[in-house]
Amino acid sequence: MRTDTRADRRATRALVERRRAEASALLSTDAARAALALHGTPLLLLDPEQVRRQYRRLRNALPFVRFHYAVKALAHDAVIAALDDAGSGFDVATGDELELLTRRGIDVARIIHTHPVKKPSEIEAALSAGVRTFVVDNDVELAKFAGAPGDVGLLVRLAYRSPHAKSDLSSKFGVGPFEAARLVEQAKRQGTRIAGFSFHVGSQLDDPARFAAAVSETLALMVDLERRLRVRFDTLDIGGGFPVSYDAPSATIEEVAARLRPILEPHVGRLDIIAEPGRVMVAEAMTLVTSVVGVAERGDGRWYYLDDGVYGSYSNVVAEDVHPLVYAEKELREGPSGIATHRWATLGGPTCDSTDVIARETLLPELAVGDLLVSPAMGAYTAVTATRFNGRALTPIAVMGRGLATGEVTAVGASDPRAVSIV
């Protein structure tokens, strides 16, 4: 984990200013202005080219790894299209996500199913569609694959505690070495092939050393079990969890890869090494624009009420403990006016619920009803985890630049993967 040093504080200021410049550049484009004029706020601006760039960064950093985008992070058709064109694989956790991909004509050979717990009917549907890589982590799930086709390969999910991750998944999924060995032995008796192992170090983990340790421990376990149980594994799934810089810098893709390369490279050719990144692919590809709908002075100071909140696109605040940056559009347009004109404020969402609070102690200029606010890096676990609480519509997504079509602008819900707003 990073410590709070003077260098870290300088890096944080640099990140805040870089995000400010990116948001300013985006809002100054004709496409963004046209989208806001058409749709109003709240509005999510999605740039598929940024998704392509992130995929290329991953491929350049770890060229021997096959990447499967975790569709759950942002199940939008423009994202799927961009990654399909780039040659990415895909990782699904439900039958609905699988249907989204097959409806687009994605080759099922590029799809893996990694939810450790599945309905028998979901397994049957995935097998019928042609999916051949699945994840299990207990006896009951293993038994569901009895009689599966011989070319099906199961990955046993391992649990690695990562208390510094935003979401430590080890308490819900995965097994330790002893239980993993038992599952491999049971699979042999059942006649089901265990292709290898998978793990997930935790979501938003800013700790390259933990990634490296998990890979090393998994490889050591695979060698030990191959020797003791007379089996042969061919697949290693290193999961996801690559961090994103929200309000503070985090390890880059390249920094994580630098720790993994020397450990993984000796196994290239012998093992099919795959990964399931989600957040790092899409977080920086989408920006949220909201507007002030109310202003109040309360016992704890100034409150601004916005037209999106934690039941909507800011759902990452509650579900992911993410702290998005928030910029006033007037500052992006006119430049910073100086700290003397700013005041600390609380940002509340639009629902009639006291838990709908986006941020506290946010330093902002004086704002009025109708003023715009901008939050960058809002692509991951935002639109997909939003609700319609209080009957509010899901925030539309406007696709900027290269989308699936051109020349048409339509307002669509963020949860509808079949339609996109093209600007």
UniProtKB/TrEMBL annotation:
Catalysed reactions, as listed in the record: L-ornithine + H(+) = putrescine + CO2
Broad enzyme group: lyase
Family matches, as CDD domains: PLPDE_III_ODC (cd00622)
Cofactor: pyridoxal 5'-phosphate
Signal peptide limits: none
Classification via SUPFAM superfamilies: Alanine racemase C-terminal domain-like, PLP-binding barrel
InterPro entries: Ala_racemase/Decarboxylase_C (IPR009006), De-COase2_N (IPR022644), De-COase2_pyr-phos_BS (IPR022653), Orn/DAP/Arg_de-COase (IPR000183), Orn_de-COase (IPR002433), PLP-binding_barrel (IPR029066)
Protein family (similarity comment): Belongs to the Orn/Lys/Arg decarboxylase class-II family.
Short name of any one Pfam family annotated for the protein: Orn_Arg_deC_N
Entry EC number(s): 4.1.1.17
Key words of the record: Decarboxylase, Lyase, Pyridoxal phosphate
Domain of life: Bacteria
Domain Orn/DAP/Arg decarboxylase 2 N-terminal: 50-283
Source lineage: Bacteria, Bacillati, Actinomycetota, Actinomycetes, Micrococcales
Pathway recorded for this protein: Amine and polyamine biosynthesis; putrescine biosynthesis via L-ornithine pathway; putrescine from L-ornithine: step 1/1
Record's protein name: ornithine decarboxylase
